[in-house]
Amino acid sequence: MDVKKTPEEADFFSTMGGMSDAFPRLQPLGDTALLVELGAGISNELNRQVHALASRLMSDPLPGVVEIVPAYATALIHYDPLILDFTDVEAWAKSALTSLETAAPTPRRVEIPTRYGGAGGPDLEFVANHAGLPPAEVIRRHSSVDYTVHMMGFQPGFPYLGGLDPAIAIPRLSVPRTRIPAGSVGIAGHQTGIYPLESPGGWRLIGRTAMRLFDPAADPPCLLAPGDIVRFVPVEPC
């Protein structure tokens, strides 16, 4: 269902780049969750709005809300149906939307030391050939920009990072590897990411970090969180 907006609210939402008359949309997912859609597609601007909404909701907690999960263009609100019903959560989300700040809180910045190429980055040469660039230039381009953690998923602590230089974007493997070591840094399409745990996967591996992205004994267990800014720092040998 769409949020009904007053003329003043419509003017406010029109200033928030990714939204249109069709958005935001609120809809139930079963009887324990509400999905807030702020737009469609993947962009840093739209994702920034998602994190601003998540921050606004968490700053005004509603008893009975279990978890808020931001993604590319949506925020999923999980709630306890024994405490709340859909209309309660819907009203809370609508209130947050109509008083949403146009800027998310200052993001946390995290550096990821990374060894590029070699045994930890077996696809670096392939990515370089695909891009028509020397491997050193692929490394420079990958490590010279700030990435936004758009969302977490796939496995605990896995960050989907937006902001990759389009020149080094590349399709994922047609046949996934059955074993990818923890800490592997990969590219898939226009995103880059880091495997926190050993697992199968189809991303093109260009390097590896020794940083531990997921530790179930830590608080919090995940090194990164949605909205964080990540910078890869090359570590010799490259």
Write the layout of secondary structure elements.
Elements: H1 7-14, E1 25-29, E2 33-37, H2 44-59, E3 65-70, E4 74-79, H3 86-98, E5 109-116, H4 124-131, H5 135-143, E6 147-152, E7 159-162, E8 177-180, E9 184-188, E10 191-194, E11 199-201, E12 204-208, E13 229-234
Parallel strand pairs: 5-13
Antiparallel strand pairs: 1-2, 2-4, 3-4, 5-12, 6-7, 6-13, 7-10, 8-11, 9-10, 9-12
Summarize the model shown.
This protein has 238 residues and is α+β, with helices and mostly antiparallel strands. It has helices spanning 7-14, 44-59, 86-98, 124-131, 135-143; strands at 25-29, 33-37, 65-70, 74-79, 109-116, 147-152, 159-162, 177-180, 184-188, 191-194, 199-201, 204-208, 229-234.
Q: Please, could you describe this protein's structure?
A:
The protein is α+β, with helices and mostly antiparallel strands and 238 residues long. The chain is built from 5 helices and 13 strands. The chain has helices spanning 7-14, 44-59, 86-98, 124-131, 135-143, and strands at 25-29, 33-37, 65-70, 74-79, 109-116, 147-152, 159-162, 177-180, 184-188, 191-194, 199-201, 204-208, 229-234. Strands 5-12-9-10-7-6-13 form a 7-stranded mixed β-barrel. Helix 4 packs across helix 5. The protein is elongated and about 55 Å long. The N and C termini lie far apart (51 Å). Mean pLDDT is 88; it is low at 1-19.
